[in-house]
Amino acid sequence: MSQSFLSEKLEEDAPQASVPLKSHTKNTLLISHGRPPWYGQDGERISDAFVIGVAGGSASGKTHVARQIVKALGSIPTVLILSQDSFYKHHSPEEIALAFESKFDFDHPDAIDMPMFASCLADLKACRQTNIPVYSFEAHQRLEETKYAYGATVIIAEGIMALHDPALRSLYDLKVFVQCDSDLMLARRIARDTKERGRSVEGILEQYLRYVKPSFDNFVRPTATFADIPIELISTHTRRQLQERSNAFRPKMVKMVNSSLYTPTLVKERLEDDPNMMIMPSTPQLEGIFTILRSKDTSHQDFIFFTDRLSTLIVEYALQFLPYSPHTVTTPLGTQSHGKKPDAKYLCGISIQRSGSALERGFRRVINDVPVGTLLIQTNSKDGEPLLLHVKLPVSIRHQFSAPDTWVFLLDAQIGTGAAAFMSIRILLDHGVKQDHIIVCGAVDNEMREGWLEGDRGEGNEDGAGRKDLGYGTWYGSDRYAELLNFTACIDGRR
């Protein structure tokens, strides 16, 4: 199946925020040890991202202070430094001409798009994706491109007016004002603007005396009264807040089971207690494929071949859950043939690494010419919690206006605990993908267990003796897990 039925194409935006941005921009996403679950066993968000507002005069060292806060926090999952500089308004040709003559006031609150700044920050605080505007200081203009950002546990919003707008202040959990000597700020501004923004010293001084200094006295300095506590206390308070907001996700969802997940009477129909779970009918072909895949005597070449064959069958089965509309074509003999065509505006695949990679080739065989994104979710070796380490999503999901019209095939080759699939669904919902537009493709095999290979040393298996039982046993998600799924094209791996 080709993607030719898609009526619109989306232009690629800038590299995703999971990759640090270029050195000349202040918007930076710092990733350390992965993002633990931010939702409960019912799939609903249970806590917001922690937001810190950092204000101060121009070149007072706000970005440096933000980075010092990150350093003081230590091992914190994901931190986003969001700069107010990205939110300057779109300028008219007349305003641009004034800007090049150093006669435009960039330090007045009206120069900043405060509603957009607050909107982007509110999306990030609510654990949703956002698209940050890009402003060029060389051209004195907001560009058409945007920067995609998602997944921060801690957000540090910095800018001269970061504490000026009440809508912004209402989003902050903590507020900081950076005090700095005025002479030092001027020296820093001259060094920065000549090197990074292509300005002349004369123009910098003229702008400083005409706009920067009066703005600092009238608008920036008064916001110091809104500040909370010093950096040392901020880092301690932030760590404590994150600990209080943490969610011991896995133990709450565990259901100990000692028997098969599916009874023989339910193999060929919807599970009564999971109305959105669809199980592929067991056939001699499927039983033969599973027999080959389980055999220790199967060659490497045969294992790959039959894995691809299995993935093709799963995706072909899942295609029935896409929307279709009537379509008429003309045959080579000139007669009219009435049929159907897929009615999805945007279509893509998401592979849950690393097991989902096994399904990618089968997915591309059945549905070619569609984008495939990746999610890297691994298990914390200490407590068994899932950790989000990397997000790379197709462009139709990264844009808020197109995500609701996107249908997603979520590929997870070996559904064991269901924790990775559960987190992946929550990520898609955070991006605005509709719940009934998510089709999970995977396989359940009760005879296969996840674990470390003996002799394979690494984190959580330092002695190479194999994975220790974390005490959770074999389990699957709560009833809400089934409700979060649209349809799961799932193969039952019973013998």
TrEMBL record:
Pfam families: PRK, UPRTase. One of its GO terms (molecular function) is ATP binding. Coiled coil: none annotated. Gene3D superfamilies: 3.40.50.2020, P-loop containing nucleotide triphosphate hydrolases (3.40.50.300). This is uridine/cytidine kinase. Keywords: Kinase, Nucleotide-binding, Transferase. InterPro entries: P-loop_NTPase, PRK/URK, PRTase-like, PRTase_dom, Uridine_kinase-like.
